[in-house]
Amino acid sequence: MLRSIWGAALVAAGVFWAADGWAATPAAASASYVLPAAAIEDGARLDAAMPALARQLLADYRDDDRSRDLNQRFRLQLVAGDYAAAERSLEALSATATQGPVPVRPNFAQYRLYARAKALQAGQGLDFGAALTRAFAETVTPMDDRAAGVAMRVLNFESPDVPRQRRALADALAPLRKQPALDRAAALALVRSYQVERSYAAMAPLLPALTAADDARRYRVERDVAVATPDGATVCATVVRPLNAAARLPTLLNFTIYADPSTTLNEARRSASNGYVGVTGTSRGKGCSTDKAMPYEHDGDDAAALIDWIAAQPWSDGRVGMYGGSYEGFTQWAAAKRRPKALKALMPSVTGAPGLDVPMEGGIFYGFQYYWPFYVANSRQLDNAAIEDYPRWQRMYQGWYVSGRPYRELPQIDGTPNPIYLRWLSHPDYDAYWQAMIPYRDEFAALDLPVLTTTGYYDGAQIGALYYLREHYRYRPQAEHYLVIGPYNHVSGQRGTVATGDSLRGYTLDPQAQIDIGQLRYQWFDYVFKGAAKPALLADRINYQVMGANEWKHAPSLAAMAQRRQKFYLGATAGSDSRYAFLAQAAAPDAYAEQVIDLRDRRDAERIVPGGGIVDAALDTAESVVFVSEPFAQAEEFSGLFSGRLEASTNKRDFDFNISLYELMPDQRYFELSRYQSRASYVDDVSRRKLLEPDRRTVLNFEAGRATSKRMQAGSRLVAVVSVLRNPQQEINYGSGKAVAAESIADAGEPMRVRWYGGSYLEIPLSR
Question: What is the CATH number of the domain that holds 473?
Answer without folding.
Answer: 3.40.50.1820
